[in-house]
């Protein structure tokens, strides 16, 4: 068993770690509120623009089939945008995302598609490290700006890059792997199709946005509006995926740091109990020595 001095050092070390984890928990809580507000504020716009794209596509009917983004690419490869964290200490956030992605890739292998047919765009250093160490093809690792500083302009540039890659014909489809934020304690890894667009991928139930009217007079015409609206729709989808991933990351980090602080508290209490018992034993031994010495003198 450790001596009094060693126990005192360990108690102090655990206390220092507890201060760090508590500070990180407070920082994560502050950033979580900020990103959560942004993610929630962007959802109504995303739902409305998705509903408008769906209504316009129904108005155009068979003409939508002529749109390149509504048809699979001619190639056999797939492109994936993977959104992870830049830093660790966020619990199982990245682990759950990687597990979901690996299950999806195994499903593709079962369909006769090898992992070499999948290329990746990556946000977050953890994702880049994971893919590189396992031999996956990372076509682009996006580091500027950092994850915490992403904005709509960044999402728009990323969306355009994905569309440009799809329109080359090299890829038959594009997917986004991110973590959807549902609550402070629930964040779900998701793999969603990005391109080609389909009525199902718009994610809007029939009848949504019923205020719009197929008989409405549009200026310019529906086809022109549709062509201008689709890029905005794709950009907002990337933006929402980034915001939800960031919100989920900080929710997971806050939860992990809270657990670490609680564990440090428990460890500190246990060490103090051992320290007090050890000190009492030493005091008792010293008293016994004194009493024994006095008895010997008598």
Describe this structure in words.
The chain has 298 residues and is an alpha/beta fold. It folds into two domains: 4-20 and 258-293, Helix Hairpins, CATH 1.10.287; 29-253, ATP synthase, F1 complex, gamma subunit (Pyruvate Kinase, Chain: A, domain 1, 3-Layer(aba) Sandwich). Helices cover 59% and strands 14% of the residues. The chain contains five helices and five strands. It has helices spanning 4-60, 93-110, 125-133, 152-167, 222-297; strands at 77-83, 118-123, 137-142, 171-183, 186-195. It has a five-stranded mixed beta sheet with strand order 3-2-1-4-5, with helices on both faces. A hairpin with a 2-residue loop joins strand 4 and strand 5. Helix 1 packs antiparallel against helix 5 and helix 4 crosses helix 5. The longest helix has 76 residues, at 222-297. The protein is elongated, with a radius of gyration of 28 Å.
Q: For the CA atoms, what is the radius of gyration?
A: 28 Å
Total number of beta strands: 5
**Secondary-structure arrangement, i.e. CATH architecture of the largest domain:** 3-Layer(aba) Sandwich
As an assembly, this protein is single chain
What is the CATH homology-level superfamily of the largest domain?
ATP synthase, F1 complex, gamma subunit
> Which strand order spans the largest sheet, edge to edge or round the barrel?
3-2-1-4-5
Number of domains: 2
CATH class of the largest domain: Alpha Beta
How many DSSP H or I helices?
A: 5
Might you state the CATH topology name of the largest domain? Pyruvate Kinase, Chain: A, domain 1
Could you estimate the helical fraction of the residues in percent? 55-70%
Return the average pLDDT rounded to an integer.
Answer: 88
Order of helices and strands: HEHEHEHEEH
C-alpha geometry: elongated
- Termini distance? 36 Å
Poorly predicted runs: 203-213
Kindly estimate the percentage of residues that lie in beta strands according to DSSP.
5-15%
Largest sheet, in brief, is: 5 strands, mixed
Give the structural class: alpha/beta
